[in-house]
Design a protein that fits this description.
This protein is of the alpha/beta class. It has one domain: 3-Layer(aba) Sandwich (Rossmann fold). It is 53% helix and 16% strand. It contains seven helices and seven strands, in the order E-H-E-H-E-E-H-E-H-E-H-H-E-H. It has a five-stranded parallel β-sheet, with helices on both faces. A two-stranded antiparallel ribbon has the order 3-4. Helix 1 packs parallel to helix 7 and helix 5 packs across helix 6. The radius of gyration is 15 Å and the shape is globular.
């Protein structure tokens, strides 16, 4: 495992935390895509600027990168040797988003670079897209496996799965 892509079913599923833990376990630098997508004040980077940053990162020999961002999957998936997918229940994702907001309200999070906030529209997005995203992500994983049978695909659906995977990495 040298180039690891971390995806998840929803905001709040734990992508950034897991990516950081994988990076620490393997001694590989972690890149949070939210950090490159969002500029200060929650201003979106241009599509080209965002894609170019990813192209730059994937040329490195080692990386752990977390974030979904469907429009740039191919940039990461072509170079990734491992794809880790987190799928936790909707209630866990919502609870984590609310907890993250409460814990970091008014502070700038390192993995995003913006002041933590929460909006009704964001919570509505999580609730209304969760099940469709879950189905599409499972289909996408089949595609990833068919495109490159050498690529390692890891599906983590519980905290026990996450802990076992991290234990395995730490060897």
């Amino acid at each position: 495992m040298q180039r690891i892509m971390v995806l998840g079913v929803s905001p709040g599923v734990g992508k950034s935390t897991l990516a950081r833990q994988i990076g620490e376990a393997l001694g590989i630098e972690t890149y949070h895509l939210d950090r490159y997508f969002w500029k200060p004040g929650w201003v979106q980077a241009s599509e080209e600027e965002f894609a170019e940053k990813q192209r730059e990162i994937v040329q490195r020999d080692q990386w752990v990168m977390d974030g979904n961002y469907n429009g740039t999957y191919s940039i990461r998936s072509e170079r990734a040797d491992t794809i880790v997918y987190l799928e936790r229940p909707l209630s866990v994702c919502l609870n984590r988003v609310l907890k993250r907001w409460w814990t970091h309200r008014g502070q700038t999070r390192d993995d995003v670079g913006c002041t933590e906030k929460i909006e009704f529209g964001f919570l509505k997005f999580i609730v209304t897209t969760y099940y469709g995203r879950k189905k599409r992500m499972r289909e996408r994983f089949l595609t990833f496996q068919q495109e490159d049978v050498k690529k390692e695909i890891v599906l983590l659906r519980s905290q026990q799965d996450v802990e076992s995977f991290l234990h395995y990495l730490k060897g």
